[in-house]
Structure formats: C-alpha cells, structure tokens
Amino acid sequence: MNSKYNRLFKASTREGNFWPAFTDILATILLVILLILITLMFTKQQQIEGKEKEVQEKEEIIDSLVGYERGMIEQLSMAFQQEGVDVQVDKESGAIKFDSDLLFDYNKSDLKPEFKQQLKQIIPVYASVLLNEKNRDKIDAILIEGHTDSDGSYMYNLELSQDRAFSIVRYILSDEFGDFPHKDALREKISAIGKSESHPILVDGQEDMDQSRRVELKFRLSMNEQMEGVLSDLNEKTQ
C-alpha cells in the first residue's frame, strides 16, 4: 500500500515540476515573438518616415525649379512692359505666340516686312533677360517652333512649319536684323523646330484652325532635365 501511494506522490511531483517549466518556455517564446514584432513595426515606421522625408525633399526641389521658371517669366513680362513692347508672355509656359497668318502669306515661309519690324522690337529685349550673365548658364535653349493646322498632309505641314521656323531664325541672326546685346549667345542657344499639326489649339474639344497656325518663341531651362529626373523619382516613391 505504501509503495502505491509513493508512486502516485512521485508522479504528481514530476507533473508539478513539468508544468512550471513549460509555461516558462512558452512565456519566453511569446516574449521573443513580441520583441520581433516590435522591432519590425519600428523598422517599418522608420522606412515610412524616411520615404515621406525623401518625397518632401523632392517636392521642395520641384517647387524651387518651378519658382525659378516663374521668376524668369515675370522678368520677361516686366522687361517688355518697361520697353513699351506690346507682346503677351504666357504666364504658365513663358511662350510668346505669333499668328502665322500675320507672319507669312498663305503656304509661304518668307517673312512679311511688318513682322520683321516686330521681331526687331521683341528679340533684343528677350535676349537681354534670358541671356544676360546672371541667367545665361541656366538657359538650355531658345526655341522657335512652327505649327500648322491639320489641313493638308502631315509631311507637307512638317516641311512648311520647319521652313517658317528656320526663316525666323535665319532673319534674327542675319546682318539685316543688325547687332544687339547677347546676339552671339543667342546664336549658340537658338533652334528652329517644325511641329507640323502635332500640337493643335483646341477650343471646346475641336481644333481651332486659325489659332493652330502659329509660331511660338519659348525657352527651355537647363534645369528641366533635373526636374524630369526628380519627377521620375517622385513617381516611383509615391506608387
């Protein structure tokens, strides 16, 4: 009888030692899991904060570049106003648009005399702002873009728009136009580009044929490439 009770007592004692040991191990495992989860959450939070900070920095760079471009556009507008030159500078793009029907005869690329006189008023002021010593290095290109309406074939319109743009550049750089400050710098920056009918002016979703026939004088900042890179990075970060 005594041996029977002794066996039961010993068995009970062994079970009592087992359960506290098991709960200690379980508590340790749970604690390790909890620490891992806390570490992962902390790391994730740091990644999110780092990503948000990088996005903010990219946005600040873009704001700075856009602000500089807007400043250039304002300088142009003020300079034309001070010189009494009647010309409209697009507040968003900085482009100056000319009606092709006033510049050229129908289907021709020879400049009309009255437009030559207009260019003599505009170009020296334009160059004095964009190509002075302060701004010159920040200007990548001065562009003369010819545009047509969709009447006729694309290739015919491409040739016509290119010829018209080239006709303007050739006149500006000619002896007939005369000298003006920063003409040599303009010669290095200016380009003639034909766009054919690829960029029509739309009104209520329909092409405005008269407005589409135009020539645009515009500038491109050397920082535009930097801006495109920043925008590309920003798009990747926000996706």
From TrEMBL:
Keyword annotations from UniProtKB, A to Z: Membrane, Transmembrane, Transmembrane helix
InterPro entries hit by this protein: Bact_OuterMem_StrucFunc, OmpA-like, OmpA-like_sf
Keyword Transmembrane assigned: yes
Pfam family, one: OmpA
Segments passing through the bilayer: 21-42
Domain OmpA-like, residue spans: 91-223
Domain of life assignment: Bacteria
Alphabetized Gene3D superfamilies for the sequence: OmpA-like domain
Protein name per its UniProtKB record: OmpA family protein
Organism (species): Salinibacillus aidingensis
